Amino acid sequence: MVEPRFSGVFSALRAFRPRARSGCLAVAALIAATSAPLYATGVAITVDDLPVYGRFWTAAEGKDVTDRLLAGMQRNHWKATGFVNEIQLDAADRPARIALLEAWLDAGMDLGNHTYSHPSLTKTPVETYIADVARDETVTAPLLAARGRREHWFRYPFLETGTTQAVRTRFEGWLGERGYRVAPVTMENSDWQFATLYDAAIARGDLAAAARVRQQYLTFTREIVAWYKQAARTLFGREPSFVFLLHASRLNAASIDALAAILRDARLRPITLDAAMRDPAYRTADHYVGPDGNEWLERWSQTLNKRLPFETMPRVPKAVVAGDARLEAIPDPHAPASVSPAHS
Ligand SMILES: [Zn+2]
């Protein structure tokens, strides 16, 4: 969508479970059968900018974020797909950083390609961009191969997919030959903007401010999740499976249980990316060509010639947008790796 957070710049129901009567398998089975439709909508959790989005000076710091993210996702039975920027591994403590990616696989998660250095396809020549994607296979692909698996998901940085049809055709042709599928995004919560403020509050030891940002983030997430459900219904007359974009941030590491509760309340059931992509909605054509980093509901709205209800779309609080922009403008003299700071 032509939303500032993606374009240009950088862009369970609290399940009504009838109380089980003890000792009666038939009743339990009936309950399972009748409650299943309440969880009919799947949501795949995807996590970008691995190993760590935001402040990441040492592998030890990254391990704290990674451990909390993975423990939270496992606690809530999320089988997430993490998208790696291998530039983040280029530091003196490289082996320990690679171990963070191994931890994702050991926790039952999948890993995909998010380019080596997080370039914009809007601003980068396509052959340079292709080389950057190939370079991102250096560590991730062998880690998957060692487990008998193959790297096969690609996520566009900034969700930018090419400004001309020639670029789209060339890059997507290359991706297909390489065995990749594009991981679309059909739900997101601008988490990266809140994460910047959260990191800054934690860095200065202001736990009260961090708690306020986290609360704003969760309130916004609850609102935007409801909006995406409504928006998808305007396109398909039903709720398709969703693909939710999050980032590997300290904020999310501190919020997984609360995010899981929001998904449950919204009658969304975490599923794998492979499972979500089997929903026929994902066979809808995407013909968008241009500079903006649009998510896929907007792309499909153009294909289907239907309007999304942007007038009711919740907005990230202005203070959060301004705070993120201000903080991102300050160079980080300690950062050993230089992934471009604002992401999708
Ligand atoms: Zn990203």
TrEMBL record:
Residues 43-161 form the NodB homology domain. Keywords: Hydrolase, Metal-binding, Signal. It comes from the Bacteria. Pfam families: Polysacc_deac_1 (PF01522). The keyword Hydrolase applies. The keyword Acetylation does not apply. Residues 1-40 form the signal peptide. Belongs to the polysaccharide deacetylase family. Is involved in generating a small heat-stable compound (Nod), an acylated oligomer of N-acetylglucosamine, that stimulates mitosis in various plant protoplasts. PANTHER family: CHITIN DEACETYLASE 1-RELATED, GLYCOSYL TRANSFERASE-RELATED. This is Chitooligosaccharide deacetylase. It comes from Sphingomonas glacialis. The lineage of its organism: Bacteria, Pseudomonadati, Pseudomonadota, Alphaproteobacteria, Sphingomonadales.
